[in-house]
Amino acid sequence: GAVVSQHPSWVICKSGTSVKIECRSLDFQATTMFWYRQFPKQSLMLMATSNEGSKATYEQGVEKDKFLINHASLTLSTLTVTSAHPEDSSFYICSAHIPGSAYEQYFGPGTRLTVT
Amino acid sequence: RKEVEQDPGPFNVPEGATVAFNCTYSNSASQSFFWYRQDCRKEPKLLMSVYSSGNEDGRFTAQLNRASQYISLLIRDSKLSDSATYLCAVNSFSGNTPLVFGKGTRLSVIA
């Protein structure tokens, strides 16, 4: 399958700080990437759709000013959690669709964020 | 009604058993269907796509019933390594729209 990477794989930060998570498509160009969040024993919840060269589309209830998404190139999307709070601690996963392929999407390995 | 629903389990089965999971979806316009496997603290990994004609890959068989709006996953001869959470996912429009996931069904295969 296609390769999607994320960095960092885990991060611990203090409350009030900001954290940037990178999602890269390594062997293909992705015009669209998706950001999900998963709390323990919960399902994957879509946060936003990241579109290269344009503004991200956020799901209802997701604060766009808190979760900043930038998709500046065809291989990189970033999610910045601003002014993080302990309740933002979660598993953040990005996915990408390969243009021209069927509908499946490939996931990055995820970033585990812990806010203390 | 939630878009994609799954029995959360857990399903605890002995090695060698056959186990089946179902997943229902509410959007009749859904176009594509998948089963993903997610191990603890890992990302979901695509297990298989689901087609109307059925799809078989070794011990795994996936089926789609459009009339009843459900998809199924059958695992034969369960292995300890099959223990994981199985997520069904549905996409309504195109590859550029996000997948909608069920909450997952947890499977534990016991020696």
Report what the structure shows.
The complex is a heterodimer of chains A (116) and B (111). Helix content of chain A is 0%, strand content 52%. Chain A has 116 residues and is mainly β. In chain A, strands 2, 4, 5, 6, 9, 10 and 11 form a seven-stranded mixed sheet that branches. In chain A, a hairpin with a 6-residue loop joins strand 4 (32-38) and strand 5. Chain A contains no helices and eleven strands. In chain B, strands 2, 4, 5, 9, 10 and 11 form a six-stranded mixed sheet that branches. The radius of gyration of chain B is 13 Å and the shape is globular. Chain B is mostly beta strands. The termini of chain B are far apart. The chains are: A mainly beta (116), B mainly beta (111).
Radius of gyration of chain B, CA atoms, in whole angstroms: 13 Å
Number of helices of chain A: 0
Rg of chain A, please? Answer: 13 Å
Low-confidence residue ranges of chain A: none
β-strand amount of chain B: over 45%
Residues in helices of chain B, as a percent range: under 10%
Provide the low-confidence segments of chain B as ranges: none
Mean pLDDT of chain B: 91
N- and C-termini, Cα separation of chain B: 37 Å
* Chains forming the largest contact: A-B, 26 and 23 residues
Beta-strand portion of chain A reads over 45%
H/E series of chain A: EEEEEEEEEEE
So what's the overall shape of chain B? globular
Q: What kind of oligomer do you see?
A: heterodimer
The proportion of residues forming helix of chain A, as a percent range, comes to under 10%
Descriptors:
heterodimer; A: 116 residues; mainly beta; seven-stranded mixed sheet; four-stranded antiparallel sheet; globular; B: 111 residues; five-stranded antiparallel sheet; 11 strands
Task: Briefly summarize what is shown.
The complex is a heterodimer of chains A (116) and B (111). By secondary structure, chain A is mainly beta. Helices cover 0% and strands 52% of the residues of chain A.
